[in-house]
Amino acid sequence: MRTTDVIGFCRRAVSGYPLRSGLMLLAMAIGVASVVLLSTLGEGTRRYVANQFSSLGTHLLIVLPGRSETTGGPPPMMGQTPRDLTVQDAMALARSTAVRRVAPIVVGSAPVSVGSRQREITILGSTAELLPIRHLTMAQGRFIPTGEVSRAEAVCVLGYQARKELFGNRSPLGRFVRIGERRFRVIGTLTQKGQSLGTDTSDMAIIPVASATALFNTESLFRILVQARNRDAVSRAKRNVQEIIRDRHDGEDDVTVITQDALLATFDRILKTLTLAVAGIAAISLAVAGILIMNVMLVAISQRTAEIGLLKAVGATHIQVLILFLVESTLLSLLGTAAGLLLSAVGLLVLQQLFPGFPMAVPWWSPAAAAATAVATGTLFGILPARRAARLDPVTALAEK
Amino acid sequence: MICLDNVSRVFQVGGESVHALDRVNLVVEKGNYLSIMGPSGSGKSTLLNILGLLDRPDEGTYCIDGRDTTALADDQQATIRRYKIGFIFQFFHLVPRLTAADNVGLPLVLAGVDPKERRHRVNEAMDRFGLSSRAGHRPDQLSGGQRQRVAIARAVIMNPTVILADEPTGNLDRTSGDEIIQAIESIREQGMTVIIVTHDPNIGSRAVRAIRMVDGRIVSDSQGQA
Questions:
Q1: Which of A62, A209, A283, A366 is the most buried (most CB within 10 A)?
Q2: Which residues of B fall within a CB distance of 8 Å from A401?
Q3: pLDDT digits over B104-125, tens only?
Q4: The whole model's pTM is what?
Q5: 3-state DSSP call for residue A143?
């Protein structure tokens, strides 16, 4: 029997029973589409998190006051508070050759007013280095001036949201805002930038770090952002940071240094695993679709018993009947896969319309894996019915009406 | 030539053995026209199934064109069915989703005949049985007589040596039945052996040779008038 004839015969068998074939295609299509869409969402989440991390800055190290101990041991007899991180600590870090930029950060909240308008806004005290480290971009004016860190200049830079709420559509440049009890001149505004891991740069005002320590009357830093010279320098920078702080803090390891890359890698691993897990769960629906194919093929065989008898009477061999039914179930699963890929394309379009900001990405392996699983299950579950068809006794098959 | 030697076929029905065929001996020469008659359960259908290699005898041997088929494997038997035997059934057994022409061409498809030659042979057969205008119709768009003519065309398309017809007019009215008998008889002109199982004494008596069966045995074997 010719291959084209086999396919032609099976094609007509598929199209000859539209309801049955349609339902089966639907089941297969939903299975395939769910694998593709779920893995796409997983991959999208991974990218979203990665983007969020890189919007935080590249080759970034975060120095936090206090040591997060992971080893056990008895609790200290006397309450020990970790030594504060100071602006001097931060400036000392710049000595390391592995470190490119350092930005000390003081965070607080204060009422900010312009005329009669008043808002409670996050105040971030830092230096000029913050701009490149955090990849911030200016909308208007300039950022905090470089120069002597200890100079408490009364200038501020407003985030997008803060500017809008305090000044509306007027230009804030050169105007004064009252932060707490002090007056600050607005020298620049930031562009609108999304939320990045909890800190919204949009709804804040940035002032020189010395002004912030004076405003909040504290010497201690919230954290220090350190940018390593390059990717390879990250681990050396981490070691240097720890050594420098230990030197300055009388030999105490009382800071925690988080490298952004390590954090990112961990998240990356978790989310990749999650994507695979979700795709695996979706693949179970393909197995269910495969069982459905088996069921439908068994029904088809009992409906077409007389036809199988006839095929045998006109000289079809055991293997020919087997092939005809196997190809039919494979054809169904192929069509179901095609329909599923189409369905997932439509689903992707809809999702993109619904969540335009989400970095939707189809992982390369997912359509391939979905298609392979679908066709494999379809064929595999087609074997049993096809064997049953091939084994039918022609006399009893022909007697069936 | 067909040759049955001491063929028996036993079925188990409710723990009892029923001899559907009981040591049947039969020789049919090439080109003969044979009718098999007898009451229901007399074994005529079983005989036809064994002649068509759809069933195997429990005892005895069956030779077709001098070749013993009893020991052949299923697939070898399928090949003999394909090239040497044509079936005509009471219920036509056309594939409902295929057109008349595709039904006729089905044995050629299974045999892997080239599509071009296939089309030629199918057209020829359709022509011969007056079905040319119906080639593109599906079985449910055809009358009973037309369906059976499609089945006859399918039976002869491989130029077999034997045509086995099981109550070919059983499902048809008188007029179409006569047409079908004429069509079947016309096959003989090609030198094919025709064996027809029927209840209808009129049809049975038209055959060259008429066999009567009772309880799995041939009880009479006579040359008819035709």
A1: A209
A2: 91
A3: 999 999 998 999 999 999 999 9
A4: 0.73
A5: coil
